[in-house]
Specification:
The protein has 242 residues and is mostly helical. It has eleven helices and no strands. The relative contact order is 0.10.
């Protein structure tokens, strides 16, 4: 499973689940084994309560910890920002509630402006305005927090499910191209919106209910190539009735 939502379920309080979800989503890139191993180490250092760990403000235990592009200094700076968020709002969820105005992308941009301003660090976690960035990891986090089922934890009610945008990774993009849901030539925010709109025709109130199944069942396990061939008819579960 490359969707590391399981890390959220290790904690009891909503505040800890929110922090665990944010960190799990933001580091969910690269090889599955790599980011899972990193997250295991990260949460091991943080102990039973990520929120209490953050509020203590002692991030030296992360010394030597890194994951791909993010080195020790980047991780510490990220946690300094998280501490400021908790000090000001009490939780990540309350911060997002404050900034949400019916547009999840603008919400993320406003948060960057509020906490980082002209600081060019941490753009990987708090992206600058761009029409090219599909914001896959943020959209994954929002899906976990807003939807409620056997996978997603559904802690937040201030963002409607139908306002979520699909977490666009390479698997979802290939599926979108194969079925004509995405017209864009490369992954982007517009491509993510196109695929979300296509899924909305099947479920207007909850288009992202298909995300996990599509990514895992069709993309990863089904090995969708993004190109329709005669072999697809016998392989793809979405084409079984065609």
């Amino acid at each position: 499973m490359n969707d590391p939502v399981e890390f959220l379920h290790r904690f009891e309080s909503s505040k800890d689940k929110e922090l665990a979800g944010f960190l799990s989503a933001q580091f969910a890139y690269g090889q599955v084994g790599g980011f899972r191993q990193f997250l295991e180490k990260l949460f091991s250092v943080m102990g039973n309560s990520p929120s209490q760990f953050v509020m203590k403000g002692d991030f030296y235990p992360f010394k030597g910890l890194y994951y791909r592009f993010q080195k020790f200094d980047d991780i510490v700076h990220l946690f300094i920002i998280l501490k400021r968020i908790l000090e000001r709002f009490g939780s990540v969820g309350e911060m997002l509630r404050k900034f949400y105005t019916d547009d999840t992308r603008s919400m993320i941009w406003q948060i960057r402006d509020e906490f980082l301003g002209n600081d060019n660090r941490l753009t990987f976690f708090f992206p600058k305005p761009s029409n090219l960035n599909p914001m896959k990891r943020w959209n994954l986090y929002l899906r976990w927090m807003v939807r409620k089922d056997e996978i997603d934890v559904g802690l937040w009610d201030f963002i409607p499910k139908d306002r979520l945008i699909i977490p666009l990774d390479t698997h979802i993009f290939k599926i979108g191209k194969c079925f004509g849901w995405a017209k864009q030539k490369s992954p982007s925010w517009k491509a993510a919106c196109e695929i979300t709109e296509a899924l909305r025709t099947f479920s207007p109130d909850d288009p992202l209910q298909y995300d996990f199944f599509l990514c895992q069942g069709v993309g990863i396990n089904g090995k969708c190539s993004g190109v329709r061939t005669s072999d697809c008819i016998g392989k793809c579960v979405l084409l079984q009735d065609e």
